[in-house]
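User: quick one, fold this
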Amino acid sequence: MKEIEEFEKIIKAPGVSGYEDQVREMIESMVSDLGETRIDNMGNLILEFPGEGPHTAIVAHMDEIGMVVSNIEKNGYLRVMKIGGVKDSLLLGRHVTIHTVKGPVNGVIGHKAPHLTTDQDKKDEIVPWTSTYVDIGASSEEEAKEMGIDVPDPITFLKPLRKLRDKMLASRGMDNRIGCYGLIQLARKLKDSGKHFTLVWSVQEEIGLRGAKVVGNTIKPDYVIALDTYTTSDSPGLDSFYKPITLGKGPVLRMVDVRAISSPKLVKHFKQIAEKNDISVQYGVTGGTTDGMALQEFGSLMIAIGVPVRYSHSTVEVAHWDDVEALVDLLEAGVKELP
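Assistant:
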């Protein structure tokens, strides 16, 4: 589908926290014909539709977890530092891309072959990030620098988008390119609404909601809707202390997480909108948090809405396309009727 092809472009654009330039340029090219965009000093991409009524800000973060080059060793291997919530167990044996001033450079995160392991290696099954290295095929520090490598170039995991059964998709970066895509679609639907909206593709969410904090300081909206993913509990091996959330059953009204509680007035509003328009939604309590928390602290009514995703912060995040489309439908109906 044309929509999935557009989504794939957004998925594959690199954007490690603090290095969101390429994904921001991609998104800006898709929405610049809808209105005047601007980029603040933090790097947030902002598209405002002036109009009547309460001021509503809708935010989705562009950044993704990843790494940066922390050192180039004399033998040409690269050492790394993690950016965001990257688990050590996911690092070894991965294809990566280093984004340099000369362009992308391919690399792999090496591991000790089982033929060479010792009893101590077997005890230490998870290798810490401080002991990992990236092989780019260079044999010296000079060769690596000639390839354009420098500290602290951002590093992303390889991100193929693969279709599973029916409309299920798997890739690295669903969190939160799904929200970015949903916000692009919403921008196209809201541009002639006549109401006051500010759409924000934010930066550095994965390292402390930093972009959203700047937005909260500068625009101070009445309503805030944070679009993000929502970690599901419908895969094997998970305890059920959180309410089960399932792929394909609609977006999730994120009622409570570890740092925010969605405003009851907005929760009630979107529940009513979902019932009125026959849109399937789910309700959840979860860990983590969203940009909505940072903006809520500036006095806005806030709701966080997420698309269910399995295996969050891994290289194989899985989502259902029906949930993405339902998110856009829910938002279009809900924001146009905000009181």
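User: anything notable?
Assistant: DSSP finds nine helices and 17 strands in the chain.
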